[in-house]
Design a protein that fits this description.
Blueprint lengths: L2 H15 L7 H11 L9 E5 L5 H9 L4 E6 L2 H13 L5 E5 L12 E7 L8 H10 L1 E12 L7 H13 L14 H8 L6 E7 L2 E5 H8 L5 H4 L4 H17 L5 E5 L2 E7 L1
Parallel strand pairs: 1-2, 1-4, 2-3, 4-5
Antiparallel strand pairs: 5-9, 6-9, 7-8
Helix pairs in contact: 2-3, 6-10
Length: about 270
């Protein structure tokens, strides 16, 4: 899959899941924690990358009412929901923009803070994208990102991916599933550019969900792009097989959803 096709697949997937995306509570929980890492300063100019349904941008707007926030995403459907959420909360300090991270034209040193929640690992040429993003941050400014740990969503995600690969020959593209899952991964990426300070915080985000809710998660996040590669009869069979194996290791149909997260704060 080339870069253009990959990005089109991402955009289509997130358009499809946009109406169900916020059913996943961990997005809201982590957005609050990420927003709490911003510096206590007035008049911040913030860029929120891959904003999705705007969880991070909205938390920042609530906590920093005098901030000016620009929030971008590939998915028009996600942005429409984000804008509706902001309007419902009476927030007027966010501008939502449909844009590709790799085609940003902001001048160097434009932003006090750049945020990126659970998205850096999606960028095809992650290292090049990271270095370009860093240039948009002012000297003394910060880049604050989140990613899932290597334990997140397991063992259930491992069962999901293993069955897809062995029984249906479907796998995530390239090394996507292994990116930015450890402190060392983040350190390696950050060290590819100039910076003055690095802080990486690991925080547990866990709560119980039913097996049906787990299947709902798979259909309301990036995993959906893998399920969409199955034919209808394959999808029906896969759902039956996968939910059966998850039920077998559940506690009366309930599992602990592990969405443990790494928060990476880079100061320039």
């Amino acid at each position: 899959m080339d870069t253009i096709e990959y990005k089109q697949t991402l955009q289509t997937t997130f358009d499809k899941v946009s109406s169900r995306y916020d059913q996943n509570s961990f997005f809201g929980i982590s957005a609050k924690r990420l927003a709490a890492l911003l510096p206590a300063a007035e008049g911040l100019h913030v860029l929120d990358l891959s904003t999705g349904t705007g969880s991070v941008a909205i938390e920042i707007a609530i906590n920093y009412p005098d901030a000016k926030i620009e929030a971008i995403d590939l998915s028009r459907e996600m942005l429409d929901i984000a804008a509706e959420k902001a309007q419902e909360r009476g927030l007027t300090n966010i501008r939502f923009i449909q844009a590709d991270v790799d085609e940003l034209s902001y001048p160097a040193g434009r932003f006090d803070v750049v945020t990126c929640g659970y998205a850096m690992f999606f960028y095809p040429d992650m290292e090049a994208s990271y270095r370009a993003i860093c240039k948009t941050v002012k000297p003394g400014g910060q880049l604050i990102c989140s990613s899932f740990t290597d334990a997140a969503f397991n063992p259930h995600a491992e069962l999901f991916l293993h069955r897809l690969k062995t029984e249906y020959d479907v796998s995530p593209p390239g090394d996507l599933k292994d990116r930015l899952k450890t402190t060392k991964n983040w350190q390696t990426l950050v060290e590819s550019s100039d910076y003055t300070d690095l802080e990486i915080i690991e925080e547990p985000i866990r709560y119980p969900v039913s097996v049906d809710e787990w299947w709902g998660l798979l259909n309301s996040a990036a995993y959906k792009s893998l399920l969409d590669q199955l034919k209808p009869e394959q999808l029906e069979a896969f759902k039956r097989e996968h939910t059966a194996e998850v039920t077998a290791i559940s506690d009366n149909g309930m599992i602990e959803l592990n969405s443990d997260t790494l928060f990476c704060k880079v100061t320039f």
